[in-house]
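Entry 12.
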Amino acid sequence: MQEKTVRYVKTVISLLVFIYCMNIAMHPTAWHFIDNVDLVFHEAGHWVFMFFGDFICVAGGTLMQLLIPFVVFLHLFTTGQRYSAYLVLYWLGQSFVNVSVYARDAQDMVLPLLGGDGTGHDWHWLLSHLGVLEYTSLIAGSIFTVGCFLFLAAVYFSLFEVWERGDK
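Predicted 3D structure (tokens):
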């Protein structure tokens, strides 16, 4: 393909992913396809971090869910695949939005959990142990804001990469 065509295709891809992410931001409690991917990494995180004590084990789900897209982003960015890295930045933002929904549920605990009601709610346990359960809304809102900021950064930098840097 000609360079100009590639730029247009990449622009369309960036904008479509941005629209998808804005839909996620407007409807964060709805289940989206990418949430299935997040769930796999979240659950694996509990197993990976189980050797570091109860607190890290419980937090490990969220840690892994955020760590995987961050590590993929860093790898792509440092190997010069910046456009691809910025597409992964959308995933990281989406993962933050997904985490914010779980965190916001810490007091009400009405979300269905993978292992059923007897498995315990990660964010309720974490915020209770930290003594900050009453700040659930503020914490969840902050996490959500980080996710939305990452969406904006991803669209800006992906388009900048295509149009200003020539995706080199």
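Annotation: Residues 113 and 120 are 8 Å apart (CA to CA). DSSP finds six helices and no strands in the chain.
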